[in-house]
Design brief:
Length: 93
C-alpha cells in the first residue's frame, strides 16, 4: 500500500473539511505524511488557538481523512495553537 500524495490529502481537506471550517474563518492544511501513513495537519485562522481545535481534529478532520484515504493510519495536529491570533473561541475568556 503506497502513501497518498500530499495534494490528494489537501484536496480532501479542501472539499470535506475547509468548506465547513471557513464558517469560523478557519482552515486546515496538510503539513506532511510519514512512511507509516501518519498525516500531520496544521490549523489556520480561527482554528489556530480555538478551544474546540482538539475536538475538531479528532472528531472531524481525522475521521474525514481516514475514511476518504484508507492508507492513512493516523492524523496528528502540529499547529502552534498558542500563536493563534484570531481564534473563534478563546480558551481564557
Amino acid at each position: 500500500m503506497g502513501l497518498a500524495p500530499l495534494d490528494t490529502i489537501q484536496a480532501v481537506l479542501d472539499e470535506q473539511v475547509n468548506s465547513l471550517l471557513k464558517l469560523h474563518q478557519g482552515s486546515v492544511e496538510v503539513a506532511g505524511i510519514d512512511n507509516a501513513g501518519v498525516v500531520s495537519i496544521r490549523m489556520n485562522g480561527g482554528c489556530q488557538g480555538c478551544a474546540m481545535a482538539k475536538a475538531t481534529m479528532k472528531q472531524f478532520v481525522k475521521v474525514r481523512l481516514m475514511n476518504a484515504i484508507p492508507c492513512i493510519t493516523d492524523v496528528v495536529d502540529v499547529t502552534d495553537h498558542k500563536a493563534g491570533a484570531t481564534p473563534y473561541f478563546k480558551a481564557d475568556e
